[in-house]
Every structure is written in C-alpha cells, then in structure tokens.
Write a structure and sequence with these properties.
Order of helices and strands of chain A: EHHHHHEHHHHHHEHHHHHE
Keywords (chain A): Cell membrane, Membrane, Transmembrane, Transmembrane helix
Low-confidence stretches of chain B: none
Pfam families (chain A): BPD_transp_2
Largest sheet of chain A: 2 strands, antiparallel
Structural class of chain B: alpha/beta
Strand content of chain A: under 5%
Largest interface: A-B, 35 and 48 residues
GO molecular function (chain A): branched-chain amino acid transmembrane transporter activity
Number of strands of chain A: 4
CATH architecture of the largest domain in chain B: 3-Layer(aba) Sandwich
Strand order of the largest sheet of chain B: 6-7-8-3-9-10
Distance between the termini of chain A: 19 Å
Organism (chain A): Loktanella fryxellensis
CATH topology of the largest domain in chain B: Rossmann fold
Subcellular location (chain A): Cell membrane
Structural class of chain A: mainly alpha
Oligomer: heterodimer
Radius of gyration of chain A: 22 Å
Low-confidence stretches of chain A: 347-356
CATH class of the largest domain in chain B: Alpha Beta
Mean pLDDT of chain A: 89
Number of helices of chain A: 16
Number of domains of chain B: 2
Chain lengths: 356, 239
Amino acid sequence: MSTIVDTRTTASRIAGVCAVLLLAAAIVAPVFVGRGVIQDLFFILTMLTLAQFWNLLAGYGGLVSVGQHAFVGIGAYTLFGAGLLLGLDPVAALLLCGVVAVVIAVPTAFFAFRLQGAYFAIGTWVVAEVVRLSVAQWQALGGGSGTSLPPTARDFAGTAWVARVLDVRDAAARDIVTYWLALALAVATCAGVYALLRSKRGLALAAVRDNVAAAQAVGVDAQRMKWLVFLIAAFGTGIAGGLIYLQKGRISPDAAFSVTDWTAFVIFIVVIGGIGTIEGPIIGVLVFFALQSLLADYGSTYLIVLGALGVVIMLFAPRGLWGLFAARTGIHLFPVRRRLRRTVPRNTQPPGETHG
Amino acid sequence: MSILSLHNVSRSFGALKVTDDVSFDVPTGQALGIIGPNGAGKSTLFNLITGNLSVDRGTITFDGADVTRTSAMHRCLNGMGRSFQIPQPFGSLTVFENLIVAATHGRGLRERDVADDCADILERTELIDRANDPASSLSLLQRKRLELARAMATQPKLLLLDEIAGGLTEGECRALIQTIRQIHASGVTIIWIEHVLHALNAVVERLLVLDFGRVIGIGDPATIMASREVREIYLGIEV
C-alpha cells in the first residue's frame, strides 16, 4: 500500500524511552528512599490518576463534572465495606470499588445527561452530595463520623512479603504496597487514555467536541461516546478512591466526599497543566505538589494563592502550562495526530505539504 | 427502483407550515436538483430527509426501509451522506482525520482499512496538499470541498448537497461541478439544493421546485425552467 499513516514523532520516541526508564526507577524506588517520599509519591500518583480521568471527561468528552468526588467516596466506602463487612482482602476489593462506582454512575449519567453545560456540572455536584448524605447514614461504617480499618484488615496481600524482603515495619510495608498499586494504576490510566485517544473512538470524541451535528451526520454515535467516557472515568475514579483510603486507613463521609480535595484540586491540576492533553495533568500535578509543599504552613493563604494562580493561568494561558509550551515548541510527548504520507504519490506533482 | 421516497411529508414550526404535504421519489442513480426562493423550505426539507429534523406527518423511505423515525446517525450508517450549507469541519482535527472519522464510523471499519480510500478522496477533491493541516485553517472553497470529501468518506448511496456552490467564484464553481459530476458518474444518487442554477443545471437530470413548503413542479429541468409558474417565482433571482 502506498498510504502510510503515522502518529509518532521524534519527541514521542524520546519520551517513550524516558517513560520506561522513569517507570523502572519508580518501581525500585522503595528500596532507596524513605517512607515520607513514598507517601508523597503515592499522593502525586493518585492525584495524577484522578486528574487524568477528569481530563478525559471534561477535556475530551466535554463533560465538565464537578461531582467526581462522588466516585472517590463510593470507591473508598466500597473498600471499607468489603473489608469490614465482607472480609475481602482490600487489594482484591479495589476492582469492586470501580465496579460499584460504575453501577452508581449509570443512574447518575441517565439523570445528568439530560442537563447541558453548567447545569450538567451542578447536577453532578448535587448527585455527589446526595451520595455523601446517604453514606453518612450507614451506621455499620461509622455513620457521619466514619471509621478505621481494623488491624486485621490492614495486613493485605503482599505486605508481609515486602516487610520481610525490604526489612521494614508493617506500616511502611503497607505504604510501599499501596504505592506500587498507585504506580500501576497511574501508568495504566495514562496508557489507557492515550490508547483511547489514538483509536477511532478518540477521533470521534474530538469530532463530537468540535461539532455534534456534523459528527452524527458522519455516523458517530455521540450519545454512546458520552456514556463510554463517563463510565470509564467513574470506574477509574472509584478504584483511585478505594486505593487512597486503603492507604489512609481511616474514612469519614466528609473527607471521602470532599469536593475540595477530590474535585476542586483535580480541576486545578488539569487547568494549570493544560486541559485536553495527556501531558497537562502530569505537569499540573507536579506544580500542584510543589505549591502544596511550599505553602503548606500558611493555612488558608495557600488556598487563596492556588485560586489566584488558577485564575491567572485561565486568563493568560487557557491551554495551561503544557499548552503554552507545546504551542511555542511544537513538541508533543503523547501525539495523537495522524499524519498522512504517501510513499508513491499518484499525482505527477509530489505532495509538498504532506510529509509532516 | 427508488432509493428515496417521501410520502405526504409535513412539518410545522408553530403556526408556520414549512413543509406542506410533500411527496416525491428519487430513482437510484438519479441527480435531483431542488430549487425555490428564500424561505421556500428547502433546508427544512433537506433536514427532514437527513434526520436532523423530525417530520410531523408522513413517511420517508430510504433504500427499502422506513427511516421516518430513525436518527441522523442511523441514516448515515444506512448510506446517506450530507454536506452542510455552512461548512461544519471538525476544526481541531486535520483534513485527513476529518475523513478518517467519517470513514471509520460511517462505514464501521478500522482505521487502516480506510486510510487508502480517504487519501484517494482527498486527491479527487484536490485537498491532498492540505491533508495534514488543521481543518480550521482551510479557505471557503476548501471547506466546501471538505464537506463533500467527508460525506464521500462515508461511502454514501445517496449524497445530499446543501448549497455547496454558494459563495464560490466562477472558476471555483466549475472545478466543483467537475468533481460532483465524477461522483455522480460513479453511481451515487444525488439530491442537490442550490441557488446557483447554472451549476445545478450542469449536473442534475431532474428538477424539483419548492415554494411555501409545497412542491409546485418536478420534472425535466428545461421544461420546469420554462414553465410560467417557475418563471414568475424566479423572476429576479434567475441567473
């Protein structure tokens, strides 16, 4: 065939090699760094996962939800419920967290998809509040004041082995196992979202975002794309929620369904990093973590600075820090653009602009 | 055999009857032109056929199946392709990707199976040199060509063109007519709404005249254009 379609660039090849090296370093990190660093990395990786899913929803699917904390909370409570009431191993229960989140997401979407734009955003938030208030009635899991994972449920799969091999205390071993799980989840999320965007469904998402009527006129099932994105995001967010609270070991409705921690911060990460790119949330979460570390001692001033920075970026760099960088340099680490090259031009004239 | 049949189709917006008891058949392989003054209901009729609007009364049959209640997406999957009067490119995608999304979803195929076809369509519609540029960077003529190319990528049996020659220069128009003629010659049925009558008459074999939502004439273009009723309506905008 004379037609070649390519999405890779030099930058993406280099990025791929770097990602593999970085991943290898991240896997062996617990051998070399202390527990504090592992906990920080856990925080970064789980926030990255949440940000990547919100970016998929809002940046690619055009579904600006401000109720994703519902799925974090549902995941967290599923994990505790499965551990405390059913006696499941928490690591095995993580998958269940995603499944339960999807089960709740179906009626949520059924209701919220009737709403457009800002109404959709508010609708998702309302659903999250309803779920929080309902969970607060669940006395077996501590009601409004919450509960802790008992010591028996804390020795989940792999901790004993890690404690022996790395010669660390049980608490540190738990952090290491949850860190590895967070690493796997974050990598799977980035890779999965990237694969989705590179597929024909990714093109359909972009088409729907650009022009719904035209997308339907060429056979794109716009409604199905919205469902797909919403359910995928709920599944991943639910697992992340379960994992976050497995590491914390203590749960309460107000913390697990916190709109600030699990939605506002996540939106901030995506917006400052660059919405609608895979690189954006990665940059965003690093900036967010740096700001949090720098300003942690200043109390509410920290939130004011965060908000002000968000506003400034939205005004002067609406595509975020990565968008700004990519526009200046033309570099894309996760390119999705398909470039057409014809090795044997059928025209007599060579197609000058088609070599990309 | 008719590929498209409208049977007593009506549609109102409030008290205004925009499509009034319209019935006609389009034989497979024919090129039908639809003309009428501004506000005659041409675009409404067009949107009723493509499924962007739903009918109040009547039935629409396409390729042997009743499609009266099916969505625009399903009509595309059944073999209807359309262009928009005001070009609606997927601006954040490249020209090539605009065709890929249409070909993969409209025909239910994988990307690698449609890449060749899409490249061929880009060559035929003279967009190949812009293949890797964002669709938002195209000129008006190129956007019109993209409308045509994207509809072709879904491999339609019936191609609906909505004022695709409007706003083009004489030379641009001639080139576009050439492309549409080739598409028609390959066996595609065409329904074409157009104000630029000479462009229309260079392609169509049959002409339908619409006024106040009603069909006031259908038949051979020369006979229709010569009829008194049509001349009266068209006096002033006849080219």
